Amino acid sequence: MVAKNTKKENTQKVDGTFVHGTSDTCIFFGVSRETLSGWAKKGAPKEGRGSWDIKKLNEWLGKGASNGNSEQKTISDEARKLKADADYRETKSEKEKIALDKIQGELIHIDDVQAEWASRILELKSGLRQLEKKIAPQIANQSIREVERVLRDEVYYLLESYSRDGAYTPRKGKT
User: How many C-beta atoms surround the C-beta of residue 28 within 10 A?
Assistant: First the structure.
């Protein structure tokens, strides 16, 4: 076995494969030293103390290249278990974040928002339908300017009631 240093003690080319030190291997896979050590205890291939063959480790994790028949390399049971465990932990973390956001009032159930806005739409619709009955007596025999004022005031009132603050109204930024 011929070893040639290609990078300060961390990388050696051994028989055509690259063997990396623990810190480089951790960086490559994006894991901690504890995780790498746990993999070793579970049977991950290791070249020696603090030395890891990236290709073999990749294959052990099920991330390796295809085999000679161009078929996808089968994932080892241990690698599938590790992946399932990582997926479970990630999903659990996302669920906890959602629960925290809900507790802190940053999340609102969509049914509540839809009900509130449907109610506002109905208020606006009702106001628009009553507009003709409400303003007709006010504008009878009035000048054009007076009619414009009455219409403007009523439309403004309807828009204000529709856009009022409420539990599900977006907050305006500070000006």
Answer: 13
Query: pTM here?
Result: 0.36
Contact 150, 138 (CB under 8 A): yes
Q: What is the pLDDT of residues 124-161, one digit of tens each?
A: 888 888 888 888 888 888 899 999 999 999 889 888 88
Is 162 within 8 Å of 120 (Cβ atoms)? yes
Written as one letter, the residue type at 138 is Q
Q: How far, in Å, are 115, 120, 169, 173 from residue 165 at the CA level?
A: 15, 11, 6, 13
Which strand (E) or helix (H) includes residue 145?
helix 144-162
Q: Does pLDDT of 63 surpass 50?
A: yes
Cα–Cα distance, 174 to 99 (Å, whole number): 28
